[in-house]
Amino acid sequence: MAKVGDSRTAPGVHIVDIPITKLFNKQGVRYVRIPTEDPTGSETPGPSGGNYTELPIPHSQLSAGVAAAGARGKYHLLKLLAQLACVGCFVAGRRCGPTLLIAFIVYLYVNGILALGVLLVSSMRALYNICDQLLYHPEQPETSRTHVGLPSTMNLPYEEVTLKTSDGVRLHSFLIKQEDNFESAPTILYLHGNAGNIGHRLAHAQGLFHTSKVNILLLEYRGYGRSEGTPSESGLYRDALAGMDFLLNHPGIDKRYIILFGRSLGGAVAVYVASHQKYSSQLAAVILENTFTSIPSLAKVIVPYKAIRYVPRIFYKSVFPSEDRISRICCPVLFVSGLADTLIPPSMMRKLHTKCPANFKRLVTFESGGHNQTWQCRDYFEICRDFVEEVKSAVDFNGGPESTVWPKDQLSVHVTADIL
């Protein structure tokens, strides 16, 4: 005798689909009646004259049987819908001919292009938004936003100042001042790189302060250290201009000797200020150290995917196009390049030096200089000191550095120096 749920068929018995209406209770047990073609004495006559075998159904098998019956019902429904769809397509094809097929293909083609376009735009938008996250790292090292070292730890006399930008952002800064000749000393506006805060630049500032005898305004970008706001390309430009305005309006600063210093990202900000129509004539000189030609050009070098080469510049949120702006700088420029820089190719510094039209320019390369360690090379501070003194002398005696031309043998200097 066949069992419910058994895939095998007993001799003379055919298992049929079991409608739920044929399930019944008898003395508290669930039974099912299965029609048979070869009845025996144990079979019960059916109401229509046929014979049935009554089989008890355990609860677990009953649930499985009901579920299977429901699944078969859904299958038949889907089969019916598919048949209706085929008939509909056939009728439509007969009535519309190839026009319907062509229209359908065009529909898929156009929507495919639109979908691809949406995908590309979404990808570029993601790249646009993630650009700043990859470029600015005010949180590195971990305590950069909570702890800023003071110049007093380096025995540097200073004044803690707060600058306000044109868009209302308050910037934290240090003005490190020469005690004996504050009003006559050149002043450097120091523009740092893309990580850390101004406290991390104190050791470098100390060397410039004592060797070159300069005042230094250590400016902390928005979103860095104890400054307000969030970093962005336009925001950093506003920050640097706020620093320039502070120096130009400070009663104790000699306006003839304002020098920009920019390392890495700060170099790109310095190029912007030096090429600015309002401020270019207010500068005595610029010092650029290990900076880049532009963010898109740098991305093509450091991003390991060839596809980045084909991303249009418009999709970069931050561009910093120094290569385009350097051609508008005519004040003296000192280019400091570490040949061991593994982040920014030294070739970019050479390109900026070549494109700069200033008569008073010099490229100094340090053989063992890394991206953040070039200032630790031997003769570094002496080279900066000589540059500052030459600029100051040109202002004092020649009516301005623009009219001074350095000897050709001083346009490019190579230093085979070891890191101290």
Description of the structure:
With 420 residues, this protein is an alpha/beta fold. The chain folds into two domains: 1-90, no CATH class; 151-415, Rossmann fold. The protein is built from nine helices and 13 strands. The protein has helices spanning 59-96, 98-135, 202-212, 233-249, 265-274, 295-302, 322-325, 346-355, 380-397; strands at 23-26, 29-36, 44-45, 51-56, 158-164, 170-176, 187-191, 215-219, 258-263, 285-289, 333-338, 361-366, 412-415. The strands form two sheets. It has a nine-stranded mixed beta sheet, with helices on both faces. The protein has a four-stranded antiparallel beta sheet with strand order 1-2-4-3, with no helix packed on it. The model is unreliable at 1-24 and 34-50 (pLDDT under 50). One of its GO terms (molecular function) is palmitoyl-(protein) hydrolase activity. It holds the Pfam family FSH1. Residues 35-54 are annotated as: Disordered. The chain crosses the membrane at residues 100-121.
